[in-house]
Specification:
The protein is mainly β.
Length: 664
């Protein structure tokens, strides 16, 4: 129904365009080949076979003269029986036969009936015989050559004559065919040919003629294409368009066309110059199916299911670097092929493919597009110029930067022995720059072995760099030594010590201090340095009547020095002075003092005390008494006392020590 309505609207538009052309009225006139007759045709916006019309003529501005004695209308419709009984009446009048046939039909759909009548009206534009059947034409056979006439037509309606329009003035003369439509051009399609030409307002209808050979050669008869008249409603942008879709057209064959125009009185123009076109096959075969591409080694291998189209003669393999980029043809294969290997690929690059099924004319239909990539299998270069720099608590490894664009970084490995099974990975993620710091305990004194490899964005690893060895600087002091034995022998102080466990020891330093009777700080002086293998030292430079303190320290090959050992002391007896004897200490809790007494013979005596683990300090000046009360004590301490007998030269001899506690 929608199609019928659209067609009806199209015909109504066509009738309207013919009733309102560029001429000033809906009445059109034309001379004929007989100079004594004039064709008068008219068009109305609405069409009805029951209407009747009257034709008037005016000569040289005179009075209007009615030409018809009876109203002009559609011919009477003859039924089928009459047509069959009088075939001679219709033999040479096919328009009249079509007219009767159309109006004798019975239509179930009212639209079909309306459409059939409008078809007759459209046919009357180019056929004056059909115009006579439907009452839209008058032949003025009383016209005089050389005279000028104006015609008007009225429509009889409700007992009145309503004007339809008035023609332009016409000088009666022999008819001359109008010029042919201009600028006729063709374009070939798939089993069709399209024509276009310049719009001419004189022609509401055109006729298309076709021949199989150009003029002047055999088979040059141009035949009118039935039913192919073009009407005004097809006009677009001042051009007319027409497409010859005759199913007998053959692709590759050349056809020749000429076009004529039909004016509003049904007169045909001259034929245009011949133009040609060759329809061509533009329909591609169906595409290949299930197209796939996948990497195999360093190649891309493609597979597909062959098309079912019998006109496929080849497959073209197409490739591009981007999905929407320009595709180039890699190979043209036979229609029996269903696989292809692309060997011209680069590692790590993405490629987009499709296969195109093609026919003999080069028409192609692409398959689905796929992407494939050959994985990067080439490792980066081996790191070069690898060096290790030692520092306190760390070893810094440097190497020459790699310029590979796809380099991801470096992996570093460490071992204590240059054995492939001993190396451990130091970094979980690749190092991006060309420096790595291995932080280690400061006391680690052994050698470390390093090697590294480069890794790219596809995680291909290079070979290992040559192994390098490094050791941190020794900054750890040796273990504190200890003096195991000290004593006097032949007027010399003999010291002995055990060898420390440190393997890198270089030497041992022996230090001595003279006991300060005033109780000031002890000032040690280096006596001598001996080889680390030496475990004994004899000090012969001692004076009688003095007490000496000794301590030692060791130094390793890196210059690290240990702490000094716990001091040991020794007293050198004075010559001719006897040490005090029977030294006694009594704790007087009532008076909170310690009473000291001793025996001896000397010019003077001096008392020394050590509190707990402190230094031995003098409590008194030199005196002749054989007793001493120490009142500068406090509960809860351990006191040690020594009494020195001192001669006139300052020589002395010390008593044996005595200890006493003020613990409660």
């Amino acid at each position: 129904m929608k199609t019928k309505i659209m067609w009806l609207c199209l015909m109504a538009f066509t009738m309207k365009s013919m009733a309102q052309p560029t001429q000033p009225s809906g009445v059109f006139t034309s001379n004929t080949a007989n100079a004594s007759s004039v064709i008068v045709k008219w068009y109305t916006q609405s069409f009805d076979l029951k209407r009747v019309y009257h034709v008037y003529r005016q000569s040289d501005g005179g009075e209007w003269q009615k030409l018809n004695t009876a109203p002009v209308g559609a011919l009477a419709v003859k039924n089928s029986a009459y047509i069959n009984a009088h075939p001679e009446e219709f033999k040479n009048n096919p328009a009249y036969l079509l007219y009767n046939f159309t109006l004798n039909q019975t239509y179930k759909d009212p639209f079909d009936s309306i459409l059939s009548v409008y078809n007759l009206a459209i046919g009357a534009v180019s056929s004056n015989a059909m115009a006579r059947c439907i009452g839209m034409i008058w032949m003025d056979s009383t016209a005089v050559k050389g005279k000028t006439y104006v015609y008007k037509v009225t429509m009889q309606q409700a007992g009145k004559e309503e004007p339809i329009g008035q023609s332009n003035a016409l000088l009666v003369d022999l008819w001359k065919a109008p010029a042919a439509p201009a600028n006729v051009m063709t374009s070939a399609g798939d089993r069709n040919v399209s024509l276009k030409w310049t719009y001419d307002p004189k022609f509401p209808v055109y006729k298309i003629y076709r021949a199989n050979a150009p003029s002047g050669k055999n088979d040059t008869t141009y035949q009118f294409l039935p039913g192919q008249a073009v009407i005004d409603s097809s006009k677009k942008h001042d051009l007319y368009f027409f497409t010859d879709k005759d199913t007998t057209l053959q692709d590759g064959k050349t056809y020749y066309y000429r076009v004529s125009g039909i004016d509003f009185t049904g007169q045909e123009s001259l034929l245009s110059e011949a133009v040609s076109a060759s329809p061509k096959d533009l329909t591609p075969p169906r595409s290949a199916q299930a197209f796939q591409a996948a990497p195999v080694g360093k190649n891309i291998v493609m597979h597909w299911k062959k098309t079912r189209s019998k006109d496929c003669v080849a497959y073209a393999v197409m490739r591009s670097a981007t999905e929407s980029g320009t595709y180039t043809e890699l190979a043209k294969l036979k229609n029996s092929d269903s696989t292809y290997t692309d060997k011209n690929t680069g590692e790590g690059k993405a490629y987009y493919y499709y296969v195109e099924a093609r026919d003999q004319q080069g028409n192609g239909s692409p398959s689905n597009r796929v992407m494939a990539m050959v994985r990067d299998q080439t490792p980066p270069q081996v790191p070069q110029q690898v060096v290790a720099v030692s520092d306190t608590g760390k070893i810094i490894i440097r190497w020459k930067p790699d310029t590979d664009k796809d380099l991801r970084g470096y992996y570093l490995f460490r071992a204590l022995k240059n054995d492939p099974g001993n190396f451990n990975l130091l970094n979980k993620y690749p190092v991006r720059n060309n420096l790595f710091t291995d932080t280690l305990p400061k006391q680690a004194g052994n050698f470390f072995i390093y090697k590294l490899c480069a890794v790219d964005s596809s995680y291909n690893r290079s070979d290992y760099s040559p192994a390098i060895e490094a050791r941190m600087p020794d900054v750890v002091a040796p273990v504190t030594p200890s003096i195991s034995k000290i004593g006097l022998q032949d007027g010399k102080v003999i010291l002995q010590w055990a060898r420390p466990a440190d393997p890198g020891l270089k030497e041992t330093g022996i230090y001595r201090a003279l006991c300060d009777s005033a109780g000031g700080p002890i000032q040690y002086q280096l006596l001598q340095t001996v080889n680390a293998a030496t475990l004994q030292f004899a000090d012969a430079h001692v004076a009688p009547g003095h007490t000496y303190f000794y301590t030692i320290s060791t130094t390793d090959s890196a210059g690290n020095q240990s702490a000094k050992s716990v001091r040991r002391s020794v007293m050198i007896p004075a010559v001719g002075v006897q040490k005090p004897t029977d030294l006694l200490a009594v704790y007087d809790t009532l008076n909170r003092q310690i009473h000291l007494s001793w025996k001896g013979e000397a010019p003077g005596f001096q008392v020394y005390r050590r509190t707990d683990n402190g230094n031995l300090v003098a409590l008194s000046s030199v005196a002749t008494a054989l007793e001493w009360n120490d009142q500068a004590i406090a509960p809860g301490h351990l006191y040690q006392y020594v009494v020195k007998a001192i001669d006139q030269d300052g020589g002395f001899a010390a008593s044996d020590p005595v200890r006493i506690s003020t613990q409660r």
